[in-house]
Design goal:
It contains 4 helices and 4 strands; from the N terminus they run ββαβααβα. It is of the alpha+beta class. α2 packs across α3.
């Protein structure tokens, strides 16, 4: 089954970019789905960094928030953190690992309850919708 990806790019307290789309491939686990979603969002992150630099606003490192600790380990350590279940992943989805090593991005844990991008991917109940 295809997963759903959502991302929001914030500058200060405002959203500069947001997206929500169904992934174009089937993944075997939530870790893979998160990795594919972050890889897709990384392209937009790099474009926005270059755009802001052209406007005179240098952004040294962009923080990507992730609610899956296994995905964070995989993104930061590439194959060193992989197991038999995810060795089949294409090298394409480790583009974010290269960007982390270059210092263009960093990944930090954010609890699921505080993930703003989940608004695009999951149905929210009344109380959660009001908090966001």
């Amino acid at each position: 089954m295809c997963s759903h990806s959502g991302s929001i790019m914030m500058l200060g307290k405002g959203a500069m970019y947001s997206s929500s789309c169904k992934q174009k491939l089937n993944t075997k686990s939530s870790i893979e789905a998160e990795l594919v979603g972050n890889d897709d969002a990384m392209v937009q992150v790099l474009w926005m960094q270059h755009f802001l630099a052209a406007q005179g606003e240098y952004v040294p490192t962009t923080t990507i928030y992730q609610d899956n600790k296994s995905t964070i380990l995989l993104e930061e350590n590439f194959r060193a953190s992989s197991s038999k279940q995810i060795r089949h992943l294409n090298v394409r989805y480790y583009f974010i690992t290269d960007q982390i090593k270059k210092g263009h991005a960093k990944v930090e844990f954010c609890p699921t309850q505080e993930m703003i991008a989940d608004f695009f991917m999951k149905p929210l109940q009344g109380a959660l919708f009001m908090c966001m």
